[in-house]
């Protein structure tokens, strides 16, 4: 270990953790709507119920994960728990979820929702916020590390469509193999030791109390962020059953499955490049403008998907996600760390962004599923795009500019 620096060690290990987390997530989840539709036989509304349970589970777990990670600071306890859940992906989907779904949709939907929500949709927020905190302390750009998460998703998705046509269970088992690597990297990672300057900047995490977290609810700027997130959270609902729509545009559904895997993989490879470049753009235009730009691109992507009538056009719309998501994530962390107390960064990310996203998905997923069944995908996408655009325009008046704010004096965080 002597031949690499502290900064290089944490960059490499955290990049590897993000890579293997997203590989497992993609293996188990990227084609789950196809699995539910083609292998289990569920319709759009039934699949929407499952995604709603996923979102509800995530919104219950995300505030807990966020506060725990802020309380733990730089300790890895929560990441070990998440690693154990990742490892269980193969046996859980094969031996628990599949039999339950074939027996009755309700216990099956609950099993899928609880596992996916707690493991992936809540777990990723804890891992990303941990990585962002370490990156500030050690001194590397978060976006360059997060780029490897996108590459992990792209790598798994590239072969997921082919494996799906052979046997969907192969994807689930591939996720468990990747989780073994995640746990190995977590064991290898050294504990982060902040210096005196870091302690002064971030404060002592163990001094945080639950009242500090609830104090965020008193801040107008927090609610302004919530309004923005309610708009951009639509992208999760849009993505949920998009593979079904995409595959339906092909004469051969199996060919559509494979092509979606290739398209999604190419999109995420582009997204990885975006993660590398997005910090440059966001640092130039500012966090607020970065957030608004991502919202406008998202509205364009969803609107274009509703207008598209062929596979080439809708593929191009899907690829806009590679531009939108890196800007959104980088700008979100920049906004959080400049407008709020940095010791609550994990809570803010998991509550202000991930938690609100899950609430919206809980409400919108069954509505979207019903819309797909009754109006069709195209008309439902047009409604989604209008919602994103409206809330983004409102947010342009509510979000603060990029001057750092000392917005938490009432929480007494700086006196502890």
TrEMBL record:
Q: Which Gene3D superfamilies match?
A: MFS general substrate transporter like domains
For this protein, the parts annotated as crossing the membrane are 12-36, 48-66, 78-101, 107-127, 148-166, 172-189, 221-238, 258-278, 290-308, 314-336, 348-368, 380-399
Domain of life assignment? Bacteria
Q: Recite the UniProt keywords alphabetically.
A: Cell inner membrane, Cell membrane, Membrane, Transmembrane, Transmembrane helix, Transport
Main subcellular localisation: membrane
- Gene Ontology molecular function terms on file: lactose binding; lactose:proton symporter activity
Compartments in which it is found? Cell inner membrane
Give the membrane topology: Multi-pass membrane protein
Task: Provide one Gene Ontology cellular component.
Answer: plasma membrane
Task: List, alphabetically, the InterPro entries matched.
Answer: LacY/RafB_perm_fam, MFS_trans_sf
UniProt keyword tRNA-binding present: no
Keyword Membrane present in the record's keywords: the answer is yes
Q: Which NCBIfam families match?
A: 2A0105, PRK09528.1
Protein's name according to its UniProt entry: MFS transporter
